[in-house]
Amino acid sequence: MKTDSALVMKIKSFMPSLSNTEKKIAEYILSHLRDVINLSITDLAERSKVSDASIVRFCKRLGMQGYQELKVMIAQDIVSPIESIHEAISENDSVNDILAKVFSSTIHSLQYTLRIIDIAQFEQAVLAIDKAERVNIYACGNSAAIALDMQHKLMRLNINATAYSDSHMQCIASTHLKPGDVCVAISHSGSSRDIVDAATLAKEAGATVICMTNIGRSPLSDLADLRLDTASKETSYHIVALSSRIAQYTIVDGLYTALAVHRKIHLSDRKNIIEKALAKKKY
């Protein structure tokens, strides 16, 4: 079955925060995806009953340079839609059905995340972490494990990184940051008060704030300097955001690998050094 494209998901996620004018544009685009490809900016403005300038502002709101980029993204989604059986899990599903749907949901999330992530911001995040004297990673609840995984990977590259899941420790740690340092704030919703508070303190201290959240506007994404978005649709049986968590793990893996390449660290050589240091820990 076909599911919403990455672009459609992004537009829908922005809906609650759009102005009335922007909602007119979004609603027309969502209802006439194939038509929009062949419309000029003036045509779309007339059909949406808004101005040309409003179309440009709407595109920039979505993180695009302009209307042409929007049309290109729509064309790409129509030409190469992602097929998925991403469906809600029901009580009548067999174990085989459940397993297939969980795998499909994860694949779906990874494919869409790759489509919507801003590569320019990803590259800036790599450079910021590479240059930072200190990297603080903040998360709580289900996201805490991702923060620890990131700390572990950055330590392997000799990067001074510390993960904090306690809200008091996060705030204290933020007061020690300075310009050039990095704060990575992880929250699926982007609305965790503790994470937003700690990230705000980090920004006030002059640190670069990088957020990892699901697509859409949120208090955390609004204050962040750099955004590494995931795209996932959670089903009613996802008590925790499973597919988005795996997408965030994958972004961490991408940062780790890009940093290793940027630092000209051969991963196998680094692995040998670390394995030698840990040799006595194994039977």
- Our estimate of the beta-strand percent is 5-15%
Percent helix among the residues? 55-70%
Q: Give the structural class.
A: alpha/beta
Shape: globular
| Strand adjacency order, main sheet | 2-1-3-4-5
Q: Kindly give the count of domains.
A: 2
Uncertain stretches: none
Query: What is the CATH homology-level superfamily of the largest domain?
Result: Glucose-6-phosphate isomerase like protein, domain 1
Examine the coordinates and then state which fold CATH places here, giving the name of the CATH topology of the largest domain.
Rossmann fold
Overall CATH architecture of the largest domain: 3-Layer(aba) Sandwich
Q: What is the typical, i.e. mean, pLDDT?
A: 86
Order of helices and strands: HHHHHHHHEHEHEHEHEHH
Oligomer: single chain
Task: Look at the structure and give the CATH class of the largest domain.
Answer: Alpha Beta
Computed CA radius of gyration, to the nearest angstrom: 21 Å
Per DSSP E runs of 2 or more residues, the count of β-strands stands at 5
- List the total number of helices: 14
First-last Cα distance: 49 Å
Please describe the topology of this protein.
Layout: H1 6-14, H2 20-31, H3 33-36, H4 41-48, H5 52-61, H6 67-79, H7 95-116, H8 119-131, E1 135-138, H9 144-156, E2 161-164, H10 167-175, E3 182-186, H11 193-204, E4 208-212, H12 219-223, E5 226-227, H13 242-262, H14 267-278
Parallel strand pairs: 1-2, 1-3, 3-4, 4-5
